[in-house]
Amino acid sequence: MNKPQVEITPENSDQESNDSDISEHIERENAPSPIKEEPKISLHRR
Question: DSSP 3-state helix, strand, coil percentages of the chain (rounded to 5)?
Answer without folding.
Answer: 70, 0, 30
